[in-house]
Amino acid sequence: MAGNFTKRQHAFKTFSADLKADDFPPVLFMYGPEEYLIDWAVNSLVRRFVQPSAEALDYVKLSDDTGADQLVEAASTFSMFSERRVVWAKDFLPLTSVNPRGFASSDRDIISEYLKNPNEGTLLIFSASEPEEKSELVKELKKNCRTYFFDKLDYSQLAAFAEKRFKSAGVFISRDTLKYLIDETGYFNKETEYRILNLVNDIKKIIAYGDGRTVTEEDVSATLNGDMDTFVFNFLDAVSSNRKDAAFSLLHNILASGNDVFSIIGLLVNHFELVLEVREFKEDGLGLAAITSKLRIHEFRVKKAMSFADKFTVEKLRSILSQLYETDRNIKTGALEQSLALELLVGRI
To answer: Pick from 35, 86, 156, 205: most CB atoms within 10 A?
Structure first.
């Protein structure tokens, strides 16, 4: 059997090359955070090797708690009509747990024996987004089988992926707007759970929201940020106009809709910090282009911040931020109950 090998290029490119070369051993292991790409790879194999009219017989997707005997039986069965049979063991329990319930050492032996002499007429695909590294099966698959690690894409790959989907829908997006979209998704933020599947869904929403011809920054902002973006700017407007009742009502409503208080405070801190930076740069005589260059963020965000910068003094913005920091600290430490802390926040700003 072909052993494991490592290439520097991303797995989707490696897989695409293997698909073009029709080069697949009978057992594959796919893993990594980008489940969308794993699903894409499996579906590509089904389209390549399974006759559409025989898919019900020659494409088998096993449940995660399938037994070892059932798995081996499915993989050992020969296809009657397709070039190769495809059997997909997605999130198979021995992949995600060291000692999965219902699996004994004899079950692992059954699978190991199959892996030593697999059915060449079947593609047996094991996959897991978060495999248990201590699992004996994971270790065996990585050592002896063809492995594809579907990690997150880099910027150029993600941009090309997104641009292709807009283009296929007949919608134009400029490179500048595309960068704004990627930045706003937070795909490259540490600890983010935003994945390609989320991006695909957001692209669909953006296309549906826009005019069907060209995507604008406003389309991206309205689609990705939605109610939260509206809340922030309404809150900024209420505070800048000294309408404290309106500001508190906005806070109450956004929290009542199920949003986390710390997420809300964090969002307000980010926006007020940006407005403060823009205000300070404006006082230094810098214009839009220079401020954008200094902050290294998208021009559209700077424009939005500039629309409020003149409504506050630098001292007022620093005071508001100080109150936000204190409110966050008081709620986290239990010094003040959430609703009282927010009332005090609005009253003081």
So the answer is: 86
Determine the residue type at 295: L
What is the separation of C-alpha 102 from the centre of its chain, rounded to a whole number of angstroms?
33
Contact 81, 118 (CB under 8 A): no
With tokens 């997150």, the residue in question is 152
Backbone angles phi and psi of 122, in degrees to 5: -125, 140
- For residue 29, the surrounding DSSP H or E stretch is strand 27-31
Q: Which CATH architecture has domain 226-348?
A: Up-down Bundle (1.20)
CATH among 3.30.1490.20, 3.40.47.10, 3.40.50.720, 3.40.50.300 for 11-149: 3.40.50.300
End-to-end CA distance of the chain: 69
Please tell me the distance from the alpha carbon of residue 303 to that of residue 344, in angstroms, as a whole number.
30
Please, are residues 87 and 125 in contact by the beta-carbon 8 Å criterion? yes
With contact defined as beta carbons under 8 Å apart, do 145 and 46 qualify? no
Max distance between CA atoms of the chain, in angstroms, equals: 78
Give every CB contact of residue 167 below 8 A, 6+ residues apart in sequence. none
The count of C-alpha atoms lying within 13 angstroms of the C-alpha of 326, restricted to the half-sphere facing its C-beta, is 15
pLDDT digits (tens, 9 = 90+) for 18-37: 999 999 999 999 999 999 99
Measured at the CA of 160, the angle between CA 291 and CA 46, to 5 degrees, comes to 150
For the question of whether the overall pTM of this predicted structure is more than 0.90, the answer is no
Contact between 194 and 186 under an 8 Å Cβ cutoff? The reply is yes
Domain ranges of the chain: 11-149, 155-173+182-215, 226-348
CA angle 54, 71, 48 (to 5 degrees): 35
Rounded distance between C-alpha atoms, residue 3 and residue 211, angstroms: 51
Q: What is the pLDDT of residues 204-244, one digit of tens each?
A: 989 998 888 999 988 888 787 666 667 777 788 888 888 88
CA distance 346 to 338: 13
CA–CA gap between residue 87 and residue 224 (Å, rounded)? 37
